[in-house]
Structure formats: structure tokens, C-alpha cells
Amino acid sequence: MRKFLHLGHPNLWVVLNKPLIPEKALLSLERFIANELEVPLLGTIPYDPLILESTYAGTPVCEWGDDLGVITEIAYTIEELFV
Asked: Which of 42, 45, 61, 68 could form a disulfide with 54, with the two C-beta atoms 3.0–4.6 Å apart?
């Protein structure tokens, strides 16, 4: 991450993908990204076997559905940034 921050690129965002860490550590990581790295965190995609299955199948997870609503939430966040 720091390698990209040194590039000075103004459009850098983070999406955490299936972090398998305790909730308390996840909250600390999210705060670190936002406060210390000063990089916007668009969202966190929780571990979901469906995401892993879509990766193995080589298809976008959005084609498999979004029962948790996480992908939809992140998509709206991205849309707000660019529209």
C-alpha cells in the first residue's frame, strides 16, 4: 500500500476483501486505513464461500447475486464518487 501512496496518485481507494480477522482487529484496520494512511475505505467484503466460488469459476461475483448486499453497497459508493 505504501508503495502506491508514494506515487502521489490522487485517486486511491481501498476495498477490503474477505478479511479473516476478528471484528475488533478489522475495526482497527479500517481506522488505520482511514486515519493513518488517509485513504478512503469504500467498504469491506466479508468472507463468503460464494465469492470464492465465483473466483474459481472466473465470473464476476455480481453475476452470482448479492445476498449480503455488500457488493451493491460498494457499487453505490463508487457511483457516488464518479457520478
From this structure: 61
Spatial distance between the Cα atoms of 38 and 60, rounded to a whole number of angstroms: 29
Query: 10 Å Cβ neighbour count for 77?
Result: 15
| Contact between 18 and 53 (Cβ < 8 Å) | no
Q: Residue by residue, what is the 3-state secondary structure of the chain?
A: CHHHHCCCCCCCCEEEECCCCCHHHHHHHHHHHHHHCCCCEEEEECCCHHHHHHHHHCCCHHHCCCCCCHHHHHHHHHHHHHC
More confident position, 64 or 57: 57
- Tell me which of 58 and 65 has the higher pLDDT: 58
Kindly state the cell numbers that stand for 49.
Answer: 464461500
pTM (predicted TM-score): 0.58
